[in-house]
Specification:
Elements: E1 5-17, E2 27-39, E3 43-47, H1 54-61, E4 67-75, E5 80-82, H2 88-97, E6 98-101, H3 115-126, H4 132-145, H5 162-174, E7 180-184, H6 192-209, E8 212-216, H7 220-226, E9 229-234, E10 237-243, H8 244-249, H9 254-261, H10 302-306, E11 312-315, E12 318-320, H11 325-331
Parallel strand pairs: 3-8, 3-9, 6-7, 7-8
Antiparallel strand pairs: 1-2, 1-4, 4-5, 9-10, 10-12, 11-12
The structure holds iron/sulfur cluster (SF4).
């Protein structure tokens, strides 16, 4: 792993036992053999339909979901952790370095705590400050960075709008000084007019504090405007990953193309000739053979039904998992 990589995963698998009893040990692999590198200081997007495994992958990288196969590594220059075996004092330390911003700012904040206590809680639980004065100073500092009015620290969450509540959630996630942030659908519950405000704040904080984001979203327009690099997930696997501009300019996997075709166009001449995504994502408990997308792919051939493609590096930071990506690329009209 090079110095510019903060998080690296190799063949990462996250499995849950869902059968009950000693004779029924059915395992559901929500994430299956994922390999990726997240560069330090980047805004890395993770997209896919619900049920694709995005949230589970994010939680595994926070060491909040069981890693049952492969490896994940976190290295920030001060520490170098293997997340698959991390426990004890090292795990406690990792909790300071890696944090989650929740999706729903209404459900994430305790209605019985003041804003000051909500933001201060991680500092107190982790024992990161000595006494109330130091805690208050740190809370005021991070609240100001998150554009919260300091007078609001004495109030309760119900007094605030959705955008203000999400800024409180962000302040709470950042108060312990993490390097790595998983933002899971962090603007999805907000009005469109507020989304841009919160996204601008996240980008500003990334630049000011040198943060690295894993930005999980189903909203491709938001990802296109926010992320440096994007990975596309389908049924627990990565099917395509590339720098954002490259991916949006020339997607190579049929699933990525279908997802992009669902983005509304402002062009009146664009009558939606692109491929549409039909059907539903299969159950992870009953996965198709071969390429997991073959049941919905208009380009599937016999080989796709029997042989699973691997994620192939196609150059320039672009990787794709499809037997036919080259011939489909050549088939695109000039
Ligand atoms: Fe479609 Fe086959 Fe490519 Fe899978 S491998 S995406 S089924 S063309």
């Amino acid at each position: 792993m090079t110095d510019d990589i903060l998080i690296s995963a190799r063949d990462l698998t996250v499995g849950y036992q869902i059968g009950k009893g000693i004779f029924n040990k059915t395992i559901l692999n929500a994430v299956n053999g994922v390999s990726l590198d997240i560069e330090r200081g980047s805004f890395f997007g993770l997209v896919g339909e619900s049920g694709s495994g995005k949230t589970t992958l994010g939680r595994a990288l926070l060491k909040a979901a069981p890693i049952t196969g492969g490896h994940a590594r976190y290295a920030d220059g001060e520490v170098d952790y293997d997340l698959s075996t991390l426990d004890g004092a090292a795990l406690k330390d990792y909790r300071k370095r890696a944090q989650l911003i929740f999706q729903d700012p209404y459900a994430a904040l305790s209605p019985r705590m003041t804003v000051r206590d909500i933001i201060a809680e991680p500092l107190e639980v982790m024992g990161l400050t000595k006494g109330r004065a130091e805690t208050d100073e740190r809370v005021r500092e991070i609240a100001a960075k998150c554009r919260l009015n300091l007078e609001h620290l004495r109030r309760f969450p119900h007094a605030f709008s959705g955008g203000q509540r999400q800024r409180i959630s962000i302040a709470r996630a950042l108060v312990a000084g993490p390097q790595f942030i998983v933002a899971d659908e962090s603007v999805a519950a907000l009005d469109v007019s507020i989304q841009a405000d919160v996204l601008n704040l996240l980008k500003q904080l990334q630049a000011d504090l040198g943060l690295t984001f894993l930005f999980i979203s189903h909203d491709l327009s938001v990802v296109a405007h926010t992320c440096d690099h994007v990975a596309v997930m389908y049924l627990g696997r990565l099917v395509e990953t590339a720098p954002t501009r490259k991916l949006f300019a020339a997607p190579r996997h049929p699933y990525t193309k279908a997802l992009f075709s669902a983005i509304p166009s402002l062009d009146p001449d664009d009558r939606g000739s692109a491929q549409k995504l039909t059907g539903e994502i299969p159950s992870p408990l009953n996965q198709p053979s071969g390429c997991k997308f073959h049941t919905r792919c208009p380009n599937a051939i016999d080989r796709c039904r029997s042989e699973e493609p691997s994620l192939e590096n196609t150059g320039d930071g672009h990787s794709v998992s499809c037997h036919r990506w080259r011939e489909l690329l050549e088939a695109v009209p000039a």
